[in-house]
Amino acid sequence: MEVRKLKTVIAGCGKIFPMHAVPVSRDPHAVLTAVCDVKPERAGAAAERFGCRAYTDFEVMLEQEKPDVVHICTPHYLHAPLACLAMEHGCHVLTEKPMAIALADARRMLDTAAATGRTLGVIFQNRYNAGSQLIRRCLDNGDLGEVRAARVLLTWDRSPEYYSQSDWKGTWDKEGGGVIIDQAIHTLDLMRWFIGRPVTGVQASLANRTHPDIPVEDTAEGRVEFEGGAYGTFYVMNHYCTDEPVRLELACTRGKAVMEGPKARVELNNGLTCLADNDPAQMFEYGDVKQYWGTSHVKQIGNFYQSLLGLAPMYVTAENAFLTQEMICALYEHGRRHFVREVR
User: Which 8-state DSSP code applies to residue 336?
Assistant: First the structure.
């Protein structure tokens, strides 16, 4: 039986682009027909690499290509308008995190998906990591019991050049913030996903300690409270000397779980210990990309196409991703009232 292939285009040919283009080019249910970028040379190079057409105007690409699926790999502030425009053109959309930089825009994305009948997906690929999956199973089957508390630690390094070489990184109006929305959002998403209950309150303090040329935070700490009394605490910063593995700990009623990067260790009160790490046999080669992005984009992208064709349920729904967006926006709303600028 012939496998149906969905016509796919990608908006944005920057650093995250290969994490989408390579899986799409190898997916049995997709065919990459075009790419788009405001920088003609970047769009041209990407199109040549993947044997497709190049555009610099997103709406023109939609009108001429008439794709089934649009991947959005642009700066954060463009996620919502491009996603809504694509869905209004009849396309399904898979966007990189975050959904948006304002909660109202994220809501508009959900409303547009409902009004058009199109499917919206949001990349949170770390939910597919082996460690994440082990912890999820131990929570779902009751082995760990309920989460009582969680803590997140992220200490990474972002040089001044990381920001100065970008026309949108490190800005409120284009990136939506700093270390929380760019680096820590994945681990904060895992924390919320594991606890699995509505957020009832947040506290956050933001600071810029070592990046005088940007207005956003490079350091943040805070607390997220959940229905039923569970809570999560976090300390995240991007002015360490290197990128250390992210650490996420869960204290549960029947044991504890610790994640470091993709690895996890679950210790149950009955003495049983379970370990998980990504299988080298499942490693996926994306090319010259940052290693901390992991290898799970291919799993989420594959699931997205399977769900569109009715072959599997959607694992990361837009509605569930919106709950993380809601939490992130609440942290910024509180944290910007407690912003400390140490650098002069």
Answer: G
